[in-house]
Design brief:
The chain is mainly beta and 390 residues long. The chain is built from three helices and 37 strands. The protein is elongated, with a radius of gyration of 22 Å.
Length: 390
């Protein structure tokens, strides 16, 4: 009975205020009222959001053609903690935008997501708070940040790509307390760029994403100047996989797979004044160091990480690192890509049952890295099943 009462209290709490459904179509001629039979154009949706009364509204953007944007969309309207603004993609029914990932844990399936393309250097810039972006396929060539998610906003199960080579080009930036979850975030430029994710908002979170930079020149895959939670992501390529750029940043970096950086998987800024924590990360096949403390006076705690085929597993390790390195598995520069992954060459970074990362993490019997093998019992694992930790 107590559980039933608690469930009722949750379902009917203010956090579950009624959502007003509006519709958007690439085929709309303009002048619609946002109903399913008279949808808004994309521009009309932006105007409605900025009109000041969009809190508690979900804009269902239909995948019925390409939304080619010839100007920057600046969203100034905000939702609230009880009535967010939701921009959600769909094809036939308003819940079908998310179709999972191809090849079990590969790229997001975008079949049912609307394609939103920003031409030239235009972008989607949100200065409004409490906005949820869901099941959208967004691409562009923005010279700075393609998608800005402001405070308390979420990017959920979206595919977002920026192809610009400008030194300030990012794919997304996360504001204070904002969240990027289960999304594909890719900087696809041939050279240059800044980062796939600029996670500089205080207490922002990056969880369960596949984050990639195609170039090794200049661009970092993730950079953070704040106490960001970076959890269970696949972080591929770039110069540094993760660049910590502020001396007061104290990110928690847990359960990620770092692979293929041209320099370090994790690089800590010189003169850090806080304790950086790295736990349960699978760090392999990076041309630079696994974790580079940069100077021996930087304070670093690292637990149950696996290192293989990096220039060094740990670089510039001082007394803090020596005293706080527990449970790490280190193959040094030996081994090959087949040691840990199902198919490194095709980008299949699921761990093998025979990988030293399997069941080697903390808590006991968890695996190291973003992919968990389903456990069949204490000390054992299913030979073929995997779970992407989200």
């Amino acid at each position: 009975m107590t559980r039933f009462i608690l469930i009722l209290a949750f379902l009917f709490s203010p956090l579950h205020a009624a959502i007003s459904e509006k519709y958007v179509s690439s085929l709309a001629g303009g002048g619609g009222d946002g109903s399913s039979g008279s949808p808004y154009t994309f521009t009309e949706m932006v105007t409605q959001i900025n009109g000041g009364s969009a809190a508690g509204t979900r804009y269902n953007v239909k995948a019925d053609g390409t939304y080619t944007r010839g100007a920057t969309d600046t969203i100034t309207g905000s939702g609230s903690s009880t009535s967010p603004i939701i921009i959600r993609g769909y094809t036939t029914t308003i819940t079908d935008g998310y179709q999972g990932r191809s090849n079990e844990f590969g790229a997001l399936a975008t079949t049912n997501m609307p394609s939103i393309v920003y031409s030239s250097t235009y972008r989607w810039s949100s200065t409004g708070d409490w906005i949820i972006f869901e099941s959208l396929n967004i691409s562009g060539d923005a010279a700075n940040t393609l998608i800005v998610a402001d405070a308390d906003s979420m990017i959920v199960r979206c595919k977002i790509e920026n192809s610009n080579t400008n030194s300030a080009a990012d794919v997304i930036s996360t504001g204070n307390r904002s969240v990027a979850f289960d999304s594909d975030i890719t900087l696809t430029s041939a050279s240059g760029g800044d980062s796939a994710i600029d996670a500089s908002g205080a207490a922002s979170k990056i969880i369960g994403c596949r984050v990639r930079v195609s170039t090794s020149t200049a661009a970092n895959t993730i950079k953070t100047a704040a106490s960001t939670n970076i959890i269970n992501n696949i972080i591929i390529g770039g110069n540094h996989g993760l660049a910590i750029t502020s001396t007061t940043a104290a990110p928690v970096v847990m359960g990620n797979t770092f692979v293929g950086a041209a320099a370090d998987a994790i690089n800590v800024v010189t003169g850090s004044t806080v304790l950086n924590t790295f736990w349960n990360n699978l760090i392999t096949d990076n041309a630079g160091d696994g974790i580079d403390m940069v100077v021996t006076t930087n304070a670093v705690a690292h637990f149950f990480n696996r290192f293989r085929d990096n220039a060094n597993s740990l670089a510039n390790a001082g007394d803090w690192s020596t005293a706080n390195g527990f449970g790490n598995d280190d193959d040094g520069t030996t081994g090959d890509t087949s040691t840990d992954y199902e198919n490194y060459g095709s980008g299949d970074y699921r761990i093998k049952s025979t990988s030293p990362a399997t069941n080697a993490g903390f808590p006991e019997n968890s695996s190291i890295g973003a992919y968990q093998r389903n456990q069949s019992g204490v000390g054992g694992s299913s030979p073929s099943a995997h779970t992407f930790v989200q």
